[in-house]
Amino acid sequence: MISKLTKEAIAGNSAVRAMFMEATELAAKVGAENVYDFSLGNPATPAPQVLTDALIDIVKDEDPLKLHSYMPNAGHEDVRAAIAANLNKRFDTDFGAGNIIMTVGAAGALNVVLKTIIDPGDEVCAFSPFFTEYRNYVRNWQGELVCIEPDYETFMPDFADMEKKLTANTKAIIINNPVNPSGVIYSEDTIKKIVDVLKKKQEEYGHEIYIISDEPYRELVYGDEKVPFLTKYYENTFVGYSFSKSLSLPGERIGYIAVPSEMADFKDVMDGLTISNRVIGFVNAPSIIQKAIVKCLDTPTDLEFYDTNRKLLYNGLMSLGFDCVKPTGAFYLFLKSPEADEKHFVEVAKKYHIMMVNGSTFNCPGYVRLAYCLSTESLKNSMPAFEKLAAEYGLKKREDFKGI
Amino acid sequence: MISKLTKEAIAGNSAVRAMFMEATELAAKVGAENVYDFSLGNPATPAPQVLTDALIDIVKDEDPLKLHSYMPNAGHEDVRAAIAANLNKRFDTDFGAGNIIMTVGAAGALNVVLKTIIDPGDEVCAFSPFFTEYRNYVRNWQGELVCIEPDYETFMPDFADMEKKLTANTKAIIINNPVNPSGVIYSEDTIKKIVDVLKKKQEEYGHEIYIISDEPYRELVYGDEKVPFLTKYYENTFVGYSFSKSLSLPGERIGYIAVPSEMADFKDVMDGLTISNRVIGFVNAPSIIQKAIVKCLDTPTDLEFYDTNRKLLYNGLMSLGFDCVKPTGAFYLFLKSPEADEKHFVEVAKKYHIMMVNGSTFNCPGYVRLAYCLSTESLKNSMPAFEKLAAEYGLKKREDFKGI
Q1: Using the beta-carbon criterion (under 8 Å), do B275 and A142 form an inter-chain contact?
Q2: Which residue of A has its CA nearest to B10?
Q3: How far is CA A202 from CA A174, A207, A209, A211, B122, in A?
Q4: Nearest to A56 among B56, B137, B208 (CB)
Q5: Residue A52 C-alpha, separation from nearest chain B C-alpha, in angstroms
Q6: Which of A17, B163, B335, B387 is 20 to 30 A off residue A117, Cα-Cα?
Q7: Calpha distance A48→A42 (Å, rounded)
C-alpha cells in the first residue's frame, strides 16, 4: 500500500547508496583495509578546528532558549547577513540578508527552489552526466527532467542539443559546477555560451527560464581553474550552496539559497522560497550549525588532500591504460569503461574489492564514477588491484604517461 | 513565474507565522514587555543542562570526521537503537533500531510518511481543529485533506462524521494527541473508538488505512491524564515524534518515525521511508543533535512552568467571563470567540496588544488559539488587558469560578 512513486524509487534505488552499503558490508567481511571504496562522496578530511571551536563556544556561551528556538523560516538574520557579505567580498555581488535563505544542505535548497517554481508538467533541464537525485527532486514537484547531451570529447555541454531541448515548457536548467560525476569545470567561456542560449530562449518563449546553480563543490577547484559565479552572468539564477564538502559537514545538513535582487518578481520569489522551506517540512535549517558555519566563511577548504588523491588516481589509472576524463574540480574521476556494458565492468571490479558507481546512474552509460575522497593510503593500496583489473581487460600500459 | 501552488501559499500564508511576525514588529515599537504574544508555539523554557553538556562533550570528544559525515539515511544506528529501547521501556513496545528513522523534526517525519504512502488523489483525514500545516503537507504529495468535525462540547471526534468521511480513497488519518490547537487529550476510550472505526473501514474497503500519529506534545500532559501509545492499539500506525517541545529544541529540527514490525508490508514501508527521507532533500537528520538527544531520553520535560501558565490563563480568562475549552495537554488554550467572526475578535484584541491566532486557521472558526508558552510574568501582565477586552464585549465575570 505504499505509493507507486515510492515503489519505483525502491526498485531503482540510488546505485551510489547501494554501492556504499555493499562496500560497508564487504569491509565487515574482509577488513576495511582491503576494500577500495570509491562509491560515496563522503569527505575524507575532518571539519576544520575552527568549526569545532565555534560549536563549543556557541553552545557554552549562548542562551539555550534563544539558540535552540524557532527563528524566521529563512534562518538567523545575522547568519544570512554574514553570508551575503562574504559573497559580496568574494564575487563582487550585492547581496544582503534578504537575498539569502538558510537550507538543509544543497539537497534541501534544490527542493525548495523546485517546489517554488514548478507547476505540474514543467520541464527542468540538466546536463548529462548529472547527479542522479536531480531526477527525484524534479519528480517530487511533478516536473519532468530533460537531459542535455555532453560533448563526449570534453564533457562540456553539447550546445546544439541544448538548443533542441529547451522548449516552451522549460522552467529551469540545473547547472552543477564543478560537475559531479565528471569532475570537469565549466569555464567562463562555457557559462557565457550557456547564458546566451538561455537569454535567446527566454525571449523566444516570453517567460523566465531559471538557472538553478548547484554548487556543493564550488571550493574544490585545482590548479588555476576558476568557477564563474552565475548571478553575475544571468539574473534569473538561484544559487544552491552546501557546506557539506567545503567544511566536511555532510551529516549536519547546512546550506543556503542566494537570489539576486534583479531576479524577476524578486519579492514573490523570496516569499515563496521561505514558505516552501517551511511547508516541505524543513521549517528552518538547524540552528547551531547555522551559527557555527559563520565562523568558518573565510576558512580554506583542505584542497591539498584531494589534490594529492586526484593526481595519484588520474596518473595511476592513465598509466595503467585506462581512459579517464581529466579531473579539474570536485573529488570525482570519470573513467571510460573498457567494455560497453559498464555495469558489468563495475561487477568485475568488485572481484578486486574496487567499489565504483556505474555511469548509467548519472545518465551516462559506458563510464564509471570514482569518488577519490578516501584515504590516500587506501588509494595507493588500490593500485595493484587496478593493475589486475587492467590486465583482465588486456589494457596496454602507457609507460611514458607524463601525468598532472 | 513562481508556481500556482506557491502563489496560493503566499496568499494564504500561515496566520500563526504572520501573527508572530506582527508581534515581533509591535514589540519593536512599544517594547516587548507591553506585547502579550500568544501566537507561536515556541517553547519558553530552556533546553535542559544535560543537553548543553551532551553537545559540548560530543563535539569535544568525538572524531569530527565520523561525527559530521554522512550516515545511513535512516540515521545513526546507535541513536535509533537507544530510542527504540527507551520506547520499549516506557510503552512496553518491541522496537529495535530497524523500526526507527531519524527525521528533521515532526514536520519532516509527517512529510516523509505522506510521500511514502500517498498516490495522487488519495485522501488523508484529520480531526478538526488541526495544525494548519497538515493541509500543506498532504498537498505536497498531491493528496487531499478531509476534515472530520469535532463534538463542540468536548472537542473529542464526532464519530458519526468520522464514519461518513472515511471513504474507499482514504489512505490515512492524522491523529495529534495532545491536540494542537484545542489543548485536549484523547483518552484511551476515545482512541479505542477511533481504532474500532478504522478497523471496520479497513475491512470494508479491503486495504490499509494508516494512522499517522503526530506526537510533538506527547510529554506535555497535566494532572493524571494519559496519552495512549498508538502502535499498541493499531498496527498500521506511524508515530511521528519531535524533541522540539519536550526538550525545547524547535530550531534544531530533530525527531523520528517509529513503525511497528507488525505493519503490513513492513520491509517495503521502511525502505520507502528511508528513500523518501533522502529524496525530499532531508538526506538524514542533523548528526550532532541526533547524538545529543540520546543523552536526554530520560530527562523530564519542565512541565511545572507550563502548568503554572495553564492554570493562570484558564482560571483568569474563565473568571473574566470568557468560555474556554479546558486544557489538559500541549501548551494551547482554545477560547470561544465572544463574537461569531473570530477574526474580528483577534483584531480587537490587538488594540490591547494581545496577539492570538484565529480558529479558521485550524479549520475551526468561532474560536481563537492562545499559546501559553510565554513568560509567566508576561502572562500575568496580560490579565488587565484581557479584562479590558472582556469589558469591551460586555462579558459577565464569574466571581465564584473555582478554577483548576
Answers
A1: no
A2: A272
A3: 15, 6, 6, 12, 37
A4: B56
A5: 6
A6: A17
A7: 15
Q: Are strands A255-258 and B210-214 parallel, antiparallel or unpaired?
A: unpaired
Per-residue model confidence as pLDDT tens digits over B95-107: 999 999 999 999 9
Please give the Cα distance from B280 to A277 (Å, whole number): 11
Q: Which residue of B has its CA nearest to A2?
A: B117
**B contacts of A119 (beta carbons < 8 Å):** 3-5
Residue among B330, B325, B334, B338 nearest B404 (CA): B325
* Pairing of β B332-336 and β B323-324: antiparallel
- Write out chain A residues lying below 8 Å of B110, CB-based: 281
Indicate the pTM of the whole model: 0.96
User: Could you please report the per-residue DSSP string of A298-367?
Assistant: TPPP-HHHHHHHHHHHHHHHHHHT-EEEPP-BTTEEEEE-SSS-HHHHHHHHHHTTEE-EEGGGGT-TTE
In single-letter form, the type of residue at position A48 comes to P
Instruction: Convert the pLDDT of each residue in A298-349 to its tens digit.
Output: 999 989 999 999 999 999 999 999 999 999 999 999 999 999 999 999 999 9
Indicate whether B24 pLDDT > 90.
no
Q: How far apart are CA B338 and CA B359, in angstroms?
A: 13
Nearest CA in chain A to B269: A2
Q: Which of A213, A184, A180, A179 is nearest to A198 (CA)?
A: A213
ipTM of the complex: 0.95
Q: Do A6 and B117 touch (CB under 8 A)?
A: yes
B309 touches B372 (CB < 8 A): yes
Q: Chain A: give the shortest CA distance to residue B401, in Å.
A: 35
**Which of helix, strand or coil describes residue B102?**
strand
How many angstroms separate the CA atoms of A37 and A353, rounded? 8
In which residue are the cell numbers 534578504 written?
A98
**Of the candidates B64, B111, B250, which has its C-beta nearest A281's C-beta?**
B111
End-to-end CA distance of chain A: 54
pLDDT-derived band of residue A13, with 50, 70 and 90 as boundaries? Answer: confident
Chain A residue with minimum CA distance to B61 = A52
Cβ pair B68:A286 closer than 8 A: no
Query: pLDDT band for position A16 (50/70/90)?
Result: confident
Contact list in A for residue B107 (CB cut-off 8 A) is 278, 281-283
Show the beta-strand stretches assigned E in A178-336.
Answer: 210-214, 237-242, 255-258, 323-325, 332-336
Q: Convert the pLDDT of each residue in B120-164 to its tens digit.
A: 999 999 999 999 999 999 999 999 999 999 999 999 999 999 999
* Composition of chain A by helix, strand, coil, percent to 5: 45, 15, 40
With beta carbons under 8 A apart, name residues in chain B contacting A47: 64-65, 68
